Write a sequence for this structure.
């Protein structure tokens, strides 16, 4: 029986200290905790936390952490529970703490283009507030309606806009964080330039709740970009795709909003599943789907046509089609968006790998070769965000013979992550490490890096109170 | 007599351990240390270091730090010595360590747009290597010929290109750092997306040599931007200038290369000193000097004209002139570049302040009002990089009555930094803290932030070996 289910007198003292300080609204225990708090979208086996804390202010977060610290009860911060690495699942004997009651957009300055939000606001709420003020928030991802800004920051979320605007880190001007002992670290100074000692906010972004609880953030907004131009291009290889990307970025600095690569294995499945007509007379090894965005649609279309024309003359592009309308653009994007149907069409073993850009082509081929050698009939689909060096690979577990899903996953992960380590790549481009990728962290980080991470964790959270056992173990 | 000048037997042992391990070329002591190693451009009183170490490889840096660690001798990393805050000046009993022999551009990939450099390379060498490959390095500053990449990273240097490309942090994909005990932290993985545990490189950027010695870096390059369009515009106030900036950035995402604000106090002196004709029929409270850069000169000029035209209709711009040639553009820039003559024309007390963008106008006025109240005849010139929220203020010490320069500086700093603290600003936008701004660090950082910085410093450098006494004191 896990510790969290044993109602000891110490536990009763702890819960009443919390209730006395935070109020009954902010503390739920036992059956009053909804079961969705027991796990997250990663599918980890559920576990009931000792309590679910729902503070409604930074002062309450601070008080909650102070009490947990005094009682030596670990704290697992939870956002929208949309993480895929198990970073927010309860650990034995821990409380979970969520900021769903701290979801205000506190202020938005459309001229300085800064929004101040509480960490429990959903990504979509921030996007909508930005749009209503004539601005754009630079991060977007599929879970936008559920995921929260605090979780986006804690995982340094990426998603669709990275090639243009960067990840959550690049949007962040100021942060407020509560440390393990309840101290409030106020770093809410929305300045681009501020070289006054260590830039502490960067230590919390991407630390998956292990160093502090993010309570508020000041985020940068972009000017709205109402115009868009879309093209699909066939390229002979990844090197040519990279050169094409460089030419687009040179012609439209800041204007390349998407640069998605689809290998032919992906394209053939996408065509079959969507029933779309073939985009070109013949098959090609790689397709690039690219969007330019900005202020002036005809200028964007002209730039796209000019760059693609030159690239065809240079042999970088074999064939290309420019969307003549938003409807045509949506049609081209349907191919890429078939990934949403992977769970119903495959038993997908999904990878979220990052590599030095120039290495992606060889790496993708080596992956397929290694998988083919072990599993001759494997079905693997490759696509990625080339601008970010992010390769997604999905292997259908059902194409691997008689293995159970877990066995298949383990075998494929061992092959792919081994190649990632050889190539100096990352086992997690944007999903984080959480619980599930811990065994493979060593493929992307050296023992000295891991020792340094542990030293920092020990300095900021000496009792290992915050999200213990996530990302790495302290032992 | 400083410790560094006492040749004790322990010191002799230490020096021979260094010489035996690194070779005589890499270790200089006593009179063999050139006097320029005794101080830096900040004008700090010179102090002879115990030795000057000049390792020629990461392995030698590691060996040097291991020996210093074993002998408990502190190490002051030195770059090009161009810092203005005294971050690289020797401290009593310390050796200085410079990477001037590690100045290779190791590789450059113009397609993936990544350059790998040793930290002793000058900024200019990196810029030139980028240009030769048809690319652009995003950081530029006046000391480019002397300052080194290691120092640029250690201070998170800003300079001229921040509004377009960000600071050194934003250029950095990978780092190699040697820790206080000689461990080598290899973070040379040039990937945009890599969420595998803490992103350690960010902890060293801007830490002014107090957490580790940066030995190599992988830096992002930009596409070359051969075309440029320049305009000078008169605006009624800072809020209008910000709105104009927003409109330019909306029209040309990624294309605004400079957006410099000059208050009339600055403009009048610049006109008198340069002998340039007045740019407009009448005086205006503020002038904006802006550059767009990109691929196509006529497209940039059209965009600039269109945005300025609309802004004039909206009353955001009172008058404007577009440069019709590179010569005219250079003429407009002469006004702004008069700052190079400040040292010969004034006894300048210079400030490098950062503020939330929207607060700059009020803050600049409050500064002048506060200075006028204490020093009715003061001469203060205001200019800044509005896109970065960076305000420069230079007060002529000779306009403050009978005070010595040091007295005048102290009095003016107390007034200005007091206002910075009130406004939630930064006492150092881009110059760092080093030795000279330590007394004012508390104006921009809370006690909790300072305690957190000390905890991190203690975790990574428990003996306080690396650049001790810089940025903050450990006591």
């Amino acid at each position: 029986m896990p510790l969290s289910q044993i109602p000891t007198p110490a536990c009763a003292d702890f819960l009443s200290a919390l209730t006395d300080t935070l109020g009954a609204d902010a503390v739920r225990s036992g059956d009053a905790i909804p079961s969705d708090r027991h796990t997250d979208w990663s599918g980890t086996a559920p576990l009931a936390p000792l309590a679910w804390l729902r503070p409604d202010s930074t002062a309450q977060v601070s008080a909650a952490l102070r009490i947990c610290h005094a009682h030596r009860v670990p704290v697992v911060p939870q956002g929208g529970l949309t993480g895929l690495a198990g970073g927010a699942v309860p650990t034995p004997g821990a409380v979970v703490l969520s900021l769903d009651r701290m979801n205000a957009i506190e202020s938005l300055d459309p001229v300085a283009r800064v929004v101040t939000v509480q960490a429990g606001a959903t990504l979509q709420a921030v996007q909508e507030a930005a749009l209503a003020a004539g601005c754009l928030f630079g991060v977007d991802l599929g879970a936008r309606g559920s995921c929260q800004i605090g979780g986006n920051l804690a995982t340094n979320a990426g998603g669709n806009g990275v090639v243009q605007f960067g990840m959550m880190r690049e949007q962040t001007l100021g942060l407020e964080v509560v440390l393990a002992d309840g101290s409030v670290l106020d770093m809410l100074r929305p300045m681009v330039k501020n070289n006054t000692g260590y830039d502490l906010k960067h230590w919390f972004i991407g630390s998956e709740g292990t160093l502090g609880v993010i309570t508020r953030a000041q985020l940068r907004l972009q000017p709205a970009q109402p115009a868009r131009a879309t093209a699909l291009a066939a390229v002979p290889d990844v090197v040519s795709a990279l050169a094409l990307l460089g030419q687009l970025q040179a012609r439209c600095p800041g204007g390349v909003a998407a640069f998605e690569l689809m290998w032919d294995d992906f394209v053939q499945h996408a065509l079959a599943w969507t029933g779309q007509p073939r985009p070109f007379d013949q098959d090609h090894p790689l397709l690039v789907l690219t969007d330019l965005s900005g202020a002036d649609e005809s200028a964007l279309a002209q730039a796209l046509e000019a760059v693609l024309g030159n690239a065809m003359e240079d042999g970088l592009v074999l064939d290309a089609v420019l969307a003549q309308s938003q409807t045509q653009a949506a049609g081209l994007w349907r191919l890429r968006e078939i990934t949403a149907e992977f769970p119903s069409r495959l038993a997908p073993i999904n990878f979220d790998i990052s590599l030095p850009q120039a290495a992606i082509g060889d790496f993708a081929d080596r992956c397929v070769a290694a998988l083919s050698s072990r599993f001759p009939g494997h079905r693997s689909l490759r696509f990625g965000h080339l601008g970010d060096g992010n390769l997604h690979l999905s292997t259908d577990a059902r194409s691997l013979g008689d293995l159970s899903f877990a066995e298949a996953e383990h075998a494929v992960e061992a092959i792919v992550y081994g190649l990632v380590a050889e190539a100096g790549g990352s086992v997690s481009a944007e999903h984080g490490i959480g619980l599930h990728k811990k065994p493979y962290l060593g493929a992307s980080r050296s023992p000295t890096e891991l020792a340094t991470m542990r030293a920092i964790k020990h300095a900021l959270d000496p009792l290992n109170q915050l999200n213990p056992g996530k990302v790495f173990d302290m032992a």
Q: What stands out?
A: The mean pLDDT of chain A is 95. The CA atoms of residues 176 and 186 of chain A lie 5 Å apart. Chain A touches chain B through 95 residues (CB under 8 Å). The first helix of chain A runs from residue 9 to 22.
